[in-house]
Amino acid sequence: MVSGKSIAIAASVTAAVAGLGYIAYFDYKRRHDRKFRRKLKRDRQKVEKKAQKIGAAPTLEDFNEQAIELLDIISKEKLPESADEKEQYFMAQVSQGETLCAAGASGYAEAACRFFQALKVYPNPVELVMIYQKTTPDDVFKLVMAMMAQEVRQKQLRYFDVFPPKDKNVQIKDKNKMGAKEKKGAKKEEVVTPNRGLFATKDFAANEIVYEEDAVVSSLLPCARNGRFCYHCMKDIPDLVVESNDIENTKVESESDAKVEQNTEQNTEQPAENMKTDEQPVEESEVAEEAAEKASAEEPSAVASIETESSAKTDEEEHVAVAEKEEEKDAASEAKEEEQKAADEPEASLAQTTDTKAAPASEFTDKSSGAIECEKCHKAVYCSDKCRQDAYDAYHQFMCTGNNNSTATEFFDLVKKNHELAPIMIAKFFGVLVDREKKKELARAIGLPLDPSMEDEYTTWEHLECMRYLELIPTTGDVVLMRKLSELMSAGVPGISEFVTGDRYTMLKGKLEYNTYAVVNTAEGVKVPEDTEETHVSDSMRGSSSSGAVGLSLYLISSHLTHDCDPNVEIAFVGNTDKAAIRTLRPVAKGEELHVSFVSTELDRETRQKKLSSQYRITCSCDKCKAENAAAEEKAKAEAEAEEKAEQESEEKTSQEAEAEAEVTETSEQN
Questions:
Q1: Is the model's pLDDT at 262 over the cut of 60?
Q2: 215-219, 407-411, 529-533, 616-620: lowest mean pLDDT where?
Q3: Which of 59, 161, 372, 410 is the most buried (most CB within 10 A)?
Q4: What is the pTM of this model?
Q5: What mean pLDDT comes out for the span 183-190?
Q6: Looking at residue 598, what DSSP letter applies?
Q7: Would you say residue 215 has pLDDT above 90?
Q8: Which of 420, 470, 506, 517 is nearest to 618 (CA)?
Q9: Counting beta carbons within 10 angstroms of the beta carbon of residue 206, is it exposed (0 to 12), middle (13 to 18) or buried (19 or more)?
């Protein structure tokens, strides 16, 4: 029987042999295997780096790595929706964060999570961040900021997976990545700059609408600011149509007014004569009595005529009074119905529940053109009360030049001097940005369903950041306009002076220069005034034709359309407003990229290329340009060959003539 001692000795010997074998194998690999040596080196560096981190302060990279881990942990936590729940949640999170901070460095990570969650439900995040900076430990604050930065980064990475919405029938794809997938063994590092385009997600026939979308922000061209186009949606404003009943009523009122004036003149002529003869003041009642007595004495029939006229006038006044009472009853009934409808459908109008100041109705007047005019500035006109209110809520309350608003006046004078619309578009953009977020927050707070256009997890600013833009060099005029814009919008957009830096203003201007479209009005009988040297603007705007352009607009989806001189879609405008509709020009297959033309397709290749290069920094290599370029080269080659052939023929002819002349000379000499 084998003893325990023997087993222990055998196990020890086996372990020793195995250890010696591994040492020999390790030494062999270290000497002969390069990959093994590199792996050992990397492992050693990791251990050294980890040892250094233990005693050193965490770096930005460390905070970012930890922030990603913490975001993954709290991603499943559900945030409250109602205002009361948010307030309670906020207080609880802040309290937990403060308790964890007091526990020391071991609780910093969880404290950062609590402060971050409190930040998500706080109505003014910027203000809370400033409070965190002053009251929390430095490492906790840096970790909260890293979590914010990483969340934004993660949101940006999934942006093109969720936008545009599926019901728009299009998808944004990176053409570089599409090409990399087709190439076997292609390295990811080779794809550096995204080259995105808009692709159809289903088949479309010719002349079919792919999608429609509202403009983010729009502005009329100076030449179209003649009171005939809406300052908000840019729709043409028709003349008011007066119905036949209204005309008859107007005639009756005019005749009645004429009779009253005639009687008044007759009554006032006689007192004037008495004043001239007697040269003493006479009471109106006495004059009237004398005139009546005289009329009754001289012409009895005239009294009857006056009485008949007076009774007719009284009957007319009674009819008018009855009509007015009926109108008042109808108005009261309509008001009551509206109140009942509003009570039954509280979600009908979000604008009525917003905390923004409504534009007083008395400030706007209906003109004969059908326009609603701002009586403060007497410049902005609108096609409807809705456009007037939407514009006022978003931006006109800040940009109106009325009521001695010297800042707005100076701003528009500078814009006119610089001959550009970009500053106006930027000012409107910030107004729209704040107005949309306010309405979103208010709808959530009071439990109203969001407007379909606002059901978006991304803010308007985040959408804008994902657009292409031109890198511009700021000018002196840009700096002056940026300061004036900050001054103009500071009352309605808190913190804009700190946010709109020179680089950010130039970036916004570059995005507008690259992505805005010319809005064209094609309504029959509508004539847009011609552009002049005074009204001309330098802004670039996409559009195959500038004819009939009334303004320019920025769109979230259509900004991702790319250029082609032979486009397969075009942009049309619904109801001649700034609402865009993308329409196919020929059949488009699923997965095919959509193209519009940034310039007129009727231009020759050289002019198109020049415009594309100067305005968008594009060197077009589309099939149309390639074909035209090949045709031009072929034509140039043929012309060169023809010229060369003509030169050869000319030389041959000259040589023959010289030979003939020499023969003649030689013959004459012989003779």
A1: no
A2: 529-533
A3: 372
A4: 0.68
A5: 46
A6: S
A7: yes
A8: 470
A9: exposed
The residues, any chain, with a CB within 8 Å of residue 624's CB and separated by 6 or more, are 564, 565, 566
Separation between Cα atoms, residue 597 and residue 586, nearest integer Å: 14
**Residue 4: what pLDDT?**
57
Query: 272 is written with which tokens?
Result: 């004037």
User: 594-640, pLDDT tens digit by residue?
Assistant: 999 999 988 999 999 999 999 999 999 999 999 998 988 888 888 88
Characterize the bridge pairing of strands 381-382 and 549-554: unpaired
**Residues in Cβ contact with 1 at an 8 Å cutoff, skipping those fewer than 6 apart:** none
Residue 419 contacts residue 536 (beta carbons within 8 Å): yes
In angstroms, what CA-CA distances link 99 with 26, 65, 93, 115?
Answer: 51, 24, 10, 11
601 phi and psi angles, rounded to 5 deg: -75, -10
Amino acid at residue number 365: T
DSSP conformation class of 193:
S
Burial classification of residue 598, based on how many CB atoms lie within 10 Å of its CB (0-12 exposed, 13-18 middle, 19 or more buried) = buried
Tokens found for residue 12: 């020890």
* Contact status, residue 54 vs residue 63, Cβ threshold 8 Å: no
**583 Cβ neighbours under 8 A, 6+ residues apart:** 207, 208, 209, 210, 569, 570, 571, 572
The whole-angstrom separation of Cα 308 and Cα 232 is: 55
- Which are the contacts of 370, defined by CB distance < 8 A and separation ≥ 6? 237, 238, 239, 240, 383
Greater pLDDT, 447 or 143:
143
Q: How far apart are CA 575 and CA 229, in angstroms?
A: 13
Determine the pLDDT at residue 482. 93
347 vs 582, residue with greater confidence: 582
pLDDT over threshold 70, residue 472: yes
Going by C-alpha positions, the residue among 222, 221, 224, 198 that lies closest to residue 211 is 198
Length of the chain in residues, anyone? 671
